[in-house]
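So, can you check this record?

>
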Amino acid sequence: MNQALTSLMTRLKSQLEELNTEQLALKEKIRTLDKAALLIKSRLLDALKIPACILPEQEISRLHFIISEQQKHDDLQNQKMDYEKLLFSYQESHLRLSTELKLLRKYQDRREQNEKKTLQLVLEKEMDDWALQKDSAKLSSK
């Protein structure tokens, strides 16, 4: 049982480490998306500045660019939201695994304490039996 408990705890620890690694990678992806979204937003703001003279071909091209950049920005924001949802689920899994590991450690500690108490009781009983045998041996020799 102790070996099974130890292997389970080892497996939970490795799952926690994997989860931590994936969380870090996901946070980095979110940061990258934020940077890309800021870049697109700044290009959009530059494109939204109205020139002094308006040429129809340039205006149509500018509006197409604005729409395209806005769609890219929206796509990045949606992707970021998906990553954040995934990160939240990772955090929930991390919490669950941490709790399981903590409970298993407490269980293992209680079990070890019970084994120590049992061993102590057995030793005390053996010492009592030895003392009784010694006393009875003294009485029978008299």
About this structure: The chain has one domain: 2-141. The helical segments are 2-48, 56-141. Residues 2-141 form one domain.
